[in-house]
Amino acid sequence: MKELVVISGKGGTGKTSVSASLAALARRPVVADCDVDAADLHLVLAPTVLERHEFRAGHEAVIRPEACNGCGVCFSVCRFGAVLPVSESSAGDEKQCRDCSYCVRSCSVRTNAVISELQGAAGAEKPSFWIDPTACEGCGVCVRFCPERAIDFPERICGEWMISRTRFGPMVHARLAAAAENSGKLVSTVRKEARRIAEEEGRDLILVDGPPGIGCPVIASVTGASIVLVVTEPTVSGQHDLERVLKLAKHFQIPAFVCVNKWDVNPEMAERIERTSILAGAAIAGRIRYDPGVTRAMIQEKAVVETEAPSAEDFRGVWERIGLS
Ligand code: SF4
Ligand code: SF4
Fold first, then answer.
1. How far is the CA of 93 from the centre of ligand 1 (A)?
2. What mean pLDDT is reported for the chain?
3. Are 204 and 239 in contact (CB under 8 A)?
4. For residue 72, which ligand has an atom nearest its CA?
5. Residue 67: CB within 6 Å of ligand 1?
6. Mutation test of ligand 2: which of 79, 80, 129 has the most ligand atoms closer than 8 Å to its C-beta?
7. Is the entire prediction scored with pTM above 0.90?
8. What are the pLDDT digits (tens) for 89-111?
9. Distance separating the N- and C-terminal Cα atoms of the chain
């Protein structure tokens, strides 16, 4: 079984258009959209979702107000500014304070003096605290030190992953929740499921639309892959990011192909990029011309090779040169 991962050193190079056309040209592929931070392959493949699964990663601290004695220990030990006072005393306050807690978050010495102040403000009533889920890093320190064991530490739901049906074959894709992390783990989940489906259904190609860049989700996308196809554009930043991503492929000893999208926008730069690629040990998969038909295809929810767009033959050329047909 082969696994082809389409990546790019940077976003906006046309990686998803290439992935969609390769999915249309491949014979019985399983498609995996591993660009989980900004998934958009579904806009072209229009999948019908068959299964949805929660994606859980890490933990988050949650205070149970009924068990809390207001001691403020969690507030003083959290180094991420995630524990905040609930200053009900300022509700309806006509003063200029908007209760944003910026001062509390920014205070580098969350000392007992601050807590005493809060206790003073609360009068006879105990102060209460809450944990901002977007600021909590899930380190568990507050859970460990809470004298009343009043802080729960459930697994965090960071998004969802889906198994769908498309006109080209099964598709595994995902959506990371806003402000959620662990996209590398979600990428690994998507790839694992795609492989399981390919094995169960006897499909011999997994086609992965990978994330842009060279960070953790990209490493999770390419590790153990058979081939990477790097889609780049003829610009200075395109060349710079291509060099970084080719180094990554070399590090993991994965054969790399390079395709220059919109090459005719800057033919000299396109040539320079191809020379750089060859020197870095990559093979040239071809060039794709600038073509407004690519955008029209996307609006129609079609892969470029499903349309009469002039560049469709360029996409076919790329697929043939990779040699998986
Ligand atoms: S450490 Fe525990 S008891 Fe103390 S304020 Fe925080 S949650 Fe409440
Ligand atoms: S788990 Fe860590 S980051 Fe989250 S509130 Fe507790 S101490 Fe702060």
1. 26
2. 89
3. no
4. 1
5. no
6. 80
7. no
8. 444 445 556 666 666 666 655 55
9. 13
Residues in contact with ligand 2 by the CB-under-6-Å rule are 61, 77-78, 80, 82-83, 131, 136-142
Whole-Å CA distances, 92 to 88, 99, 169, 217, 320: 9, 11, 57, 45, 68
Phi (first) and psi of residue 190, to 5 degrees: -60, -45
Statement: residue 19 has pLDDT above 90: yes
Residue 178 CA to ligand 1 center (angstroms) comes to 28
| pLDDT value at 124 more than 60 | no
Protein residue closest via CA to atom 4 of ligand 1 = 71
* pLDDT in the model for residue 144: 97
Q: Which fold has domain 61-153?
A: Alpha-Beta Plaits (3.30.70)
- What is the pLDDT at residue 267? 97
Buried b (16+ CB within 10 A) or exposed e, 86-108: bbebeeeeeeeeeeebeebeeee
* Binding site membership of 131 for ligand 1 (Cβ less than 6 Å): no
- What is the whole-number distance in angstroms between the Cα of residue 81 and the centre of ligand 2? 8
- Homologous superfamily of 2-57+159-322: P-loop containing nucleotide triphosphate hydrolases (3.40.50.300)
The domains of the chain are located at: 2-57+159-322, 61-153
Residue type, 57: A
pLDDT at 44: 95
Mean per-residue pLDDT, 180-186:
82
Judged against a pLDDT cut of 60, whether residue 261 lies above it is answered with yes
